[in-house]
Every structure is written in C-alpha cells, then in structure tokens.
Amino acid sequence: MKLHAHVGPDGNIAGLVASPEGGPAPMLTPSPGVQVCEIQGYATKGETVELDQLVKLLEKNTVVLTPTQGKLVRRKR
Predict the structure, then answer these.
(1) With pLDDT > 90 as the criterion, what percentage of the chain qualifies?
(2) For residues 60 and 75, is the Cβ–Cβ distance under 8 A?
(3) Count of domains in the chain?
(4) CA distance 8 to 21
(5) Which pLDDT tens digit goes with each residue over 35-65?
(6) Cα three-residue angle 23-36-58, rounded to 5 degrees
C-alpha cells in the first residue's frame, strides 16, 4: 500500500491516506495551505493497514517537504 500525507507548511501531518499499490490513485483534495505528498520509503505490506502503526507515525514524525515529494523524519523533542 502507498501512503499519502496531508502536510501543513510547518511539516506537521494533518492526515494520512493509504491506497493499494498499483491501484487507482486516491482523490486527494487538501485544505488551503496544505500540500499532499506520497511518503517515500514507507509502504505497508499486504491489503490492510495497521491503525496502531499509523497512529505512532503521526505522533513521532513530521514531513520535510520538497517541491515534488515528502521525506518522513523523526520529530525533535
């Protein structure tokens, strides 16, 4: 599964969308000021998504935005 994130200008993740690998791309419409990017290097295996994994990802990470992609990084405390 691919993982897409709605990301604010500060890198905080506002939401996540998982979609099947090789399937149709999800229709992602962000709020004003929010960017949508695919999280590179983070794909879940199989047909299901573990919600606990996504909750931990949201709690512990932000996204560094580049013009075409996002890179998941650990939050600094």
Answers:
(1) 4
(2) yes
(3) 1
(4) 25
(5) 888 887 775 666 677 888 888 888 899 988 7
(6) 95
Q: What is the mean pLDDT of the chain?
A: 81
Tokens, residue 38: 């695919």
Q: Rounded to an integer, what distance in angstroms lies between the CA atom of residue 50 and that of residue 3? A: 12
The residue among 18, 19, 5, 21 whose CA lies nearest residue 61 is: 5
Range of the domain at 25: 2-74
Residue partners of 1: CB distance under 8 A and separation at least 6: 18, 19, 20, 21, 43, 44, 45, 46, 47, 49
